[in-house]
Amino acid sequence: MIIHPIKPVFDSNSEILILGSFPSVKSREEGFFYGHPQNRFWKVVATVFDSPVPQTVEEKRRFLLANRIAVWDVIKSCEIEGSADSTIKDVIPNDLSVILNNAPIKQIFVNGKTAEMYYKRLIEPTIHRSAVWLPSTSPANATYSPKKLIESWKQIAINE
């Protein structure tokens, strides 16, 4: 059983919550979200907000908070082989009340099909809030070009 090692990023101004499934091996090593250099998350969200791509963990944290974005994952702990979502089992979900009780979240987004599946199964029934699916920024999602990803992810900036 692997326990999620990264604290959620949010503050009292966060309006958008983006949930992944579970951090990759690289993200767990780095101690921050979307740490694999091939993951397109940071390039996509930086483009959506017309910002330079943040490089360091501190720059990434500042970028998220400056754009009123909270980030965490659906899964608190699970069995997983490497970083493959397809191997996830024995899932325990994160308690989103940590964020939802302390930030004015207007919209919840899920990054990819695995996050969506576990969100709908384990979280939505308890918090009664739906999430909007976004195509995964993972390098494993080869069906979405960077341009197509950016088009889909533009909806996170709806409040701008």
Q: What is the tally of beta strands? A: 7
Oligomeric composition of the shown chains: single chain
Query: Could you list the spans in which at least 5 consecutive residues all have pLDDT below 50?
Result: none
Helical proportion, percent range: 25-40%
Number of helices: 6
> CA-to-CA gap between the ends?
40 Å
The fraction of residues in strands falls at 15-25%
Strand order in the largest sheet: 3-2-6-7
User: What is the residue-mean pLDDT, rounded to a whole number?
Assistant: 95
- Structural class by sheet pairing and helices: alpha/beta
Most strands sheet: 4 strands, parallel
Cα-based radius of gyration, to the nearest Å = 14 Å
Topology, pairings included?
Layout (H helix, E strand, L loop, with lengths): L1 E2 L12 E5 L4 H6 L10 H8 L8 H10 L2 E5 L1 E5 L9 E5 L3 H4 L6 E5 L1 H15 L4 E3 L11 H8 L7
Parallel strand pairs: 2-3, 2-6, 6-7
Antiparallel strand pairs: 1-4, 4-5
Helix pairs in contact: 2-6
Q: What would you say this structure looks like, in words?
A:
- With 160 residues, the chain is α/β, with parallel strands linked by helices.
- The protein has helices at residues 25-30, 41-48, 57-66, 97-100, 113-127, 146-153; strands at 2-3, 16-20, 69-73, 75-79, 89-93, 107-111, 132-134.
- The strands form 2 sheets. It has a 4-stranded parallel beta sheet.
- The chain is globular.
- The termini are far apart.
